[in-house]
Amino acid sequence: MMMNATDALTVIRTLETAGIEVWLGDGGWGVDALLGEQTRPHKDVDLIARVDQAQDLVAALRPLGYTVTEGRLASCFVLGDQDGRSVDVHPVVFDEEGNGDYTMDNGEIWVYEAAWFNATGTINGEAVRCLTARGQVLCHTGYTLDDEDRRDMAALHQRFGVELLPEQC
Questions:
Q1: Which positions ≥6 away from 93 have C-beta within 8 Å?
Q2: What is the pLDDT of residue 105?
Q3: Is residue 119 part of a domain?
Q4: Closest CA to 10 of 22, 90, 52, 140
Q5: Is residue 51 part of a domain?
Q6: What pLDDT, in 10s, does the model give residues 140-161?
Q7: Cβ contacts of residue 87 below 8 Å, gap of 6+?
Q8: Domain range holding 28?
Q9: If exposure means fewest CB atoms within 10 Å of the residue's CB, which of 74, 122, 157, 164 is most exposed?
């Protein structure tokens, strides 16, 4: 089962209604929201949320049939429903400058820079909070990109003029 636009918006709006701050994460729907159109199918929706709201996030999605299927609430965790849709959550702790510190599974800290949280995209014409194009590109470093990642980075470069690193081309 794929996470279509209606499903992604339902998850986001449910969380917002519950008072939980979320941003579309790097890749997938985050890129498509910036582009203002769905460019490919998505198997999940990636969200960034405050670590202190992780328990509330899980509780808010429970009525939609989502339960934690992997990970830990203090690090990356995934919720899934009986139809195979999933929500991949990267919980962060915001520092005094507004940077989001994300503890990866290996214990290392990845920093989402404060300026990256200042973008608004659209899904089906509805405004959603997401990472900036620059943030998207910088999150796609330090590992081998697949063809989808390269297409996403090329689309961001073409639309927003954000510079790509050689390994992203």
A1: 50, 51, 52, 100, 101
A2: 84
A3: yes
A4: 22
A5: yes
A6: 988 899 999 999 999 999 999 9
A7: 11, 44, 45, 47, 61, 66, 78, 79, 80
A8: 5-161
A9: 74
CATH of the domain at 148: 3.30.460.40
Q: Are strands 44-50 and 86-94 parallel, antiparallel or unpaired?
A: parallel
User: Which among 164, 114, 148 is positioned nearest to 28, based on CA atoms?
Assistant: 148
Residue whose structure tokens are 């940077």: 99
State the pTM of this model: 0.95
Is 78 a domain residue?
Answer: yes
Q: What is the mean pLDDT of residues 76-94?
A: 97
Confidence (pLDDT) at 167: 82
Could you tell me which of 22, 36, 31, 6 has the C-alpha nearest to residue 152? 31
Strands (E) across 4-158 are located at: 22-24, 44-50, 67-71, 77-80, 86-94, 100-103, 109-112, 119-123, 126-130
pLDDT of residue 20: 98
Q: Give the total number of structural domains in the chain.
A: 1
Q: Is residue 96 in some structural domain?
A: yes
- Chain position carrying tokens 């290996």: 106
CA within 13 Å, CB half, 80: 10
Q: Which of 49, 68, 50 is nearest to 59 (CA)?
A: 68
